[in-house]
Specification:
The protein is of the alpha/beta class. It has 13 helices and 14 strands. The strands form three sheets. Strands 1, 2, 4, 5, 6, 7 and 11 form a seven-stranded mixed beta sheet that branches. A five-stranded parallel beta sheet has the order 8-12-13-3-14.
Length: 588
């Protein structure tokens, strides 16, 4: 099958009374709404001129959210059919119920399916993902398919809702990344999309590596050199212990323990015992000194002198009494010093006792291993020691691995940044208009349409930002034109969409464009010029331009005649009852 166009041919439902058929044609297609009273903005449905674009997108297999209008109970039994003209002799119809599986079929002539039976359909019972894949193989332009895009990539420039004019090139107001649309639009303008895609991939890689390195560096750790040395020593110890455990030979381990007992523990105990003995001797001497007292009974001495008839002078008695008193005073000061010294010695003795107790406990534990009668119990104890060392080794290795990973990521980051820089240098010359026939034609077509419709000199161009990413911009020679605000922005966005269709009108590409509320707030002269230009370009290039218009927004040629011809209006809506709504039912 030769595919060279994608046009809308017919939209209908399984309930023609409520949703009458809409047939599309080349040229200008108008959804016209006549309003005699203020529309209730709180109504979820209103007349439905904006809803139509959602129905078309739904049939083109857009995944819809829970709050979508077709999720309402009133549409639970509805099925919608969209017939697409794929080439001059091939048509594809998509049947999508508001709930349930999707069906797709192709025919050589237009066929309207009268019921929900799928017996004559080529592909039935398809999930949304399966249906997209099948439809893509049927209608996607070959050039887009070769570049890795799907038919839905280009729909953003074919279906522009009233809220989507502000971002001329991005279209959507959501927070989607530039990588989701820039490569596609670059491809349609003759720029190598593969290089653009690789650049965005490099951007993501650089940011991911930076975040990973930042996260790892936030965890404190030692230097790699100290960790490597400690790991080497610990690994050797564990290896030796494993060999001894595997051979069930504890000779070296026992020798190590014996050496530890003899050279350290026993020596410590001996030293502490000597120190304790010395302190005990000092305490004993102090206790004896404290018990000793100075005694001198002067009365017994006088009696002795009397028995031998020797006179004892009174003055000598007084001197001895003074001597006794002096000795008592001296003994009191001495005892205080002895008590203080004893207290200090007791504190030292208690400290030694505590240290001695710990050392004896250590001696007992080590001796228990040496004197263990049950070899298996000894094996288990030694195995526990090896297990603890292995756990410690694992922690150290994890820390070292973290440092090594940081270094490795650093090298990858340098490579990613070099790739990013290289790609940015490749992209820079791609933005030039000269040498790119597609881009040159697009710029000229855009400028011509702007001049003819708005009467100003404008152009669009592509440049790279400081990150080396593409940026699409519109340049106006007369900056005062910006004072026209959103109305001019809306027209510029619509012109860009039409430009893409015109420059690809001879290629395998889309052939339709839907602009909701395009004429709103424009000067009548601009409205007339826009519609005239739409008619002219659609006729020259066999394109479909679909617009929704309120009667209050129509340009007036004279006081009696409205501007659109009757055959251009594909659906007329009004606010004079249910028959004037897109869905001919009560408001919901």
């Amino acid at each position: 099958m030769v595919k060279n166009l994608i046009k809308l041919n017919r939209l209908y439902s399984n309930n023609k009374e409520i949703f009458p058929d809409i047939e599309f044609h080349d040229g200008v297609n108008v959804v016209f709404a006549s309003v005699t009273q203020a529309i209730n903005n709180k109504s979820s449905h209103s007349l439905g001129k904006t809803t139509l674009i959602d129905i078309i997108d739904f049939c083109l297999l857009k995944q819809i959210p829970k709050e979508h209008i077709l999720k309402k109970e009133v549409f639970s039994n509805f099925s919608f059919y969209l017939e697409i003209k794929v080439s001059e002799k091939n048509y594809t119809t998509i049947r999508r119920p508001s709930e349930g599986k999707i069906s797709i079929t192709t025919n050589s002539i237009p066929i309207r399916f009268e019921d929900d039976s799928t017996s004559n359909w080529e592909l039935t019972n398809l999930s949304l993902a399966e249906a997209k894949k099948k439809l893509n193989s049927i209608i996607c332009p070959e050039k887009l398919k070769r570049s890795g895009f799907t038919y839905r990539n280009g729909l953003r420039y074919c279906l522009r809702k009233q809220t989507q004019y502000e971002n001329t090139f991005k279209v959507n107001n959501s927070r989607e990344s530039d990588s989701s649309w820039v490569p596609y639009i670059a491809s349609t303008l003759g720029i190598n999309s593969e290089t653009i895609t690789k650049k965005y991939e490099a951007n993501v890689k650089v940011e991911a590596l930076k975040n990973a390195i930042k996260e790892i560096k936030s965890i404190p750790t030692e230097s790699s050199q100290s960790l490597e040395a400690e790991i080497t020593q610990l690994d050797a110890t564990i290896s030796r212990m494993k060999i001894e455990l595997n051979n069930f030979d504890f000779k070296r381990t026992d020798e190590n323990i014996s050496s530890e007992l003899i050279n350290e523990v026993s020596s410590n105990i001996s030293t502490m015992l000597s120190r304790a003995y010395s302190l005990d001797q000092k305490l004993s001497a102090i206790d004896k000194s404290l018990k000793a007292t100075f005694t001198f009974e002067i009365e017994k001495v006088i009696d002795l002198f009397r028995e031998v008839n020797i006179y004892f002078p009174d003055e000598l008695t007084k001197s001895y009494e003074e001597l006794i008193e002096l000795n008592k005073n001296l003994s009191a000061g001495r005892n205080e010093r002895l008590i203080s010294a004893k207290k200090s010695i007791i504190e030292d003795r208690d400290a030694i006792n505590m240290a001695l107790e710990n050392e004896r406990r250590r001696q007992q534990n080590l001796t228990q291993i040496l004197l263990q009668k049950d070899a298996f119990e000894k094996y288990k104890k030694l195995q526990e020691r090896a297990s603890k060392e292995e756990s410690r080794l694992a922690v150290l290795e994890e820390r070292l691995e973290r440092i090594d990973l940081t270094n490795e990521l650093g090298e990858k980051l340098e490579a990613a940044e070099r790739e990013k820089t290289t790609l940015a240098k490749l992209i820079e010359p791609m933005t030039k208009v000269r040498g790119n026939d597609v881009l040159s034609t697009a710029v000229l077509t855009f400028s011509e349409l702007v001049e003819n419709i708005l009467g100003i000199s404008a152009f669009f161009y592509i440049e790279t930002n400081k990150e080396g990413n593409l940026q699409f911009k519109i340049g106006l020679k007369d900056q005062t034109s910006l004072n026209q605000g959103y109305s001019y922005t809306r027209v510029l966005s619509a012109i860009f969409d039409i430009t893409l269709l015109i420059i690809n009108s001879k290629n395998d590409f889309y052939r339709f464009c839907y602009h909701d509320g395009i004429l709103e707030s424009l000067d009548d002269r601009i409205k007339v010029k826009l519609i005239d230009e739409w008619r002219k370009k659609s006729s020259e290039n066999k394109l479909q331009f679909i617009i929704t218009v309120l009667d209050s927004d129509l340009p007036i040629i004279n006081e009696d005649k409205k501007y659109f011809e009757k055959n251009e209006v594909i659906r007329e809506l009004h606010d004079r009852g249910a028959t004037g709504r897109l869905f001919r039912m009560e408001a919901f």
